[in-house]
Amino acid sequence: MLMRVVNVVVAVCLSVVGVASGQTWNGSAGTDWFTAANWTPATVPGLGATVTINSGTVNVPCDVSGGARTLNGGTIQGTGSLTVTGTLNWPSGTMQGGGQLVIPSGATANLTGGVDKNVYRAVVNNGTWNWTGIGDMRFSNTVFTNNAVFNADPGTGTQRCYGDNSSTGSINAFNNTATGVFNKAGSGATRFTVNNSVVPFNNAGSVTLTTGTVEIFTGGTDTAGYTVPTGTTLTFSGGRTFSGAAAISGVGTVNMNSGTYVFDTALAVTNPVNVTGTLVL
Hints:
Elements: E1 22-25, E2 39-40, E3 50-53, E4 57-59, E5 64-66, E6 69-71, E7 75-77, E8 82-84, E9 87-90, E10 93-103, E11 108-111, E12 117-125, E13 128-132, E14 137-139, E15 143-146, E16 149-153, E17 158-163, E18 173-176, E19 181-184, E20 189-192, E21 201-203, E22 206-209, E23 213-216, E24 221-222, E25 225-227, E26 233-236, E27 240-242, E28 247-249, E29 253-256, E30 260-263, E31 268-269, E32 273-275, E33 278-280
Parallel strand pairs: 1-3, 3-6, 4-7, 5-8, 6-9, 7-10, 8-10, 9-11, 10-12, 11-13, 12-14, 12-15, 13-16, 14-17, 15-18, 16-19, 17-20, 18-21, 19-22, 20-23, 22-25, 23-26, 24-27, 25-28, 26-29, 27-30, 28-31, 29-32, 30-33
Antiparallel strand pairs: 1-2
C-alpha cells in the first residue's frame, strides 16, 4: 500500500511578550517581525518598545500594538494591523498590505520632510496626524479615515495626496468623518490631485484654513463645512456634491473650476466665489 506523506506548513501568529526597550530592525534572519534575530538587540519589541526601521522589508503577519515607531526607510507590509500608541515618526518609506495603520486617541503621527510617503494600506486616525513639509502622500488601495485631528502644513511649498502609478483600478478615498477636524496651516498649498488614480476628498466634519491654499481636484461629497478666512483660498476642480449641513464660511476666496457642482440643499456661502464649472441647484 502506497502512502503519500504531505507536509502542510501553517503560518501561526504567536503571542510574543517582547522587551520594552529600543529596538532597531536589521533583517538578518528574514522579514518576520516576530523573529528576535531580526532586531538589535535580538529580542522582539514589546508594547513599550521604541522601534526604528531604517531599511529593508518587515512583514507583520499578525496585529502589532506598541509605543514609539520611526520609519526612516524600507517597507512595512503584511496582513496584520499596526497600532501605534505613542508617536509614529515617518520621514520616508512605505507601509503596505491588507492590515490597517491605526493611530489611537492620544497618539500622534508625524509625516515630515520632503520625501514622498507610500501609504499603501488603510489608515484610521483617532489621534493627531501631522503632515508637514512637501513630501507627498501616495495612496494605493488606501482609504484614510480621519476621526480626529489632521494637520496639514506644507510651509511655503506644495504637498500633494494622490493615487500612485501602481494603483491602477484601485479604490482610494480620504474621509473626514463627522468627528474629523482638518486644519490647514502654512502659506503653501495642500493639494488632493490625480496621478494614475484619484483620491476623492469626502467631508462630513470640519475643514479650516488658517493660511494658504487647499486644492481638491479629485471630486467627493460634502455634508459639512469649510472655513475660509481672509487671505486663504479653497479651490475645487472636477465637481462635487454638497448636501446636508454643507456650508462655506469666511471671506477668503473659493474657486469652483471645471466639473459639475450639485447642491442637494441650500449652500450657505459668505465668501466670494469664482465659478467656471457647472452648477446644478
